[in-house]
Amino acid sequence: MGRTAMSRKELRRAGVMSRVRAKDLKLMEGAELLGVSYRQGKRLWKRYREQGAEGLKHGNAGRGSNRAKPRKMRKQVLGLVRKHYGGEPGERFGPTLAAEQMEKDHGVRMDAETLRRWMRQEGLWSRQRKRKPYRKRRQRKEHFGELVQMDGSFECWLEGRGPRGCLMDMVDDATGTTLSQMGEEETTWAAADCLRAWVEKYGIPVALYVDWKNVYLRAPTPKEQLRGEAPLTQFGRMCAKLEIGVIGASSPQAKGRCERNHGVHQDRLIKLLRLRKVSSLEQANGYLEREYLPNHNRRFAVAPAKRADYHRRVERGLDLRKVFCLEEKRTVSQDWVVRYQNRLLQLEPRGKYLAAGSQVVVQQWRDGSVHVVQGDREVSWKEIASLPERESSPGRELWPGPPPRGHKPAPDHPWNRAAAREWRRKQRRQEEHCGNDAAVEAVESQKQAFHRSHEPLGNLANGARFPHSHSADYGSPFPAEEGIV
Question: Which of 13, 51, 82, 94 has the smallest count of CB within 10 Å of its CB?
Fold first, then answer.
């Protein structure tokens, strides 16, 4: 169905003709105003006098096109679109792709533009594009240490003079104060070393703003979901010991201060390392601590909105080596052995606080040393090469006797029945072509050949047998002489 309302051009003509009727304009002046000839103006004036403004509408207005698709086809096509190619704005097929797939899957050939017009009329398609999410600039935190952003930046920092590295960067949100360390990868140890350096220099911050990477945050396992436990990575456990909140950023733009810092380092630091001819990560870390970071903070750090420092001091007696370490829980076996990374740790407990079957925590410190802890107490241990052999029970051998023989199939077992049927078939053929004595002689030769081909393959030196191999011990598939008829 076409349009029914008057177009803008037709409304304009109706307005001019009404002025002609009111004698504000002459017909010739109205024709000039409409941009038509005087004769065409006379035709328009005649239609206006006889039919009013409706007479100025195009004659085809409100009528369907002679080349329009049948309504039945339109209904069928739109039904296919709804069923197979519809969905939410981000999921549904576009008109071009829907037309291609409809022809391929259903054999319905449809012009993409016609389908676009139909889909728009039915609300199955819109011109709305995927837009980037709206982002609002976040103001800085007011206190130094209230929030620290942390991220790693991979770059060829040494420009071929050394290995490719990752710069672990920590930026205070309130002041822009920066602390950086160079490492090979963005690992748990690299993040732990950088955070420990910050804690030793400035104190314990309130919260960290990090990426959703497995180093910092991870999704809960099904067991943790059932128990309602919060998932913790090794780095998250270190932060929990220091009561540091870990906040996951949903996008790189959320950590814009840290990302912009990466851009500054990728420009300035690379050039300065080239100028100093630094060729190793150790030299780069020395240059960062001695010269680069002090100059960078003097140049780019700002004063916080409020003077209060939200960093907490490290408690007296707190050993940071026990905080920044890898931990795994282990169960003590009945022989007081704990397994850890293919190592056997023989515990030497003192006192009654540790028993077989209880749980301990194995800590691996940054220097590689391993410590076994239960609660606040450390358990002494020594590494053993292998587990001690267990003594066998009295009167019972560890490996009693030879291996058991295989099962002997019954004469009517399917294996034997099939072989017997084949044997009888061959026997009848022999009887048909030769005499009875020759048949018996041929049968005997077949029987011997059958036993030779089905002898056990596994009569090995140690006496092991294959239980499913045919042999004389298991019985012949040929029954007694009554089978020879």
Answer: 51
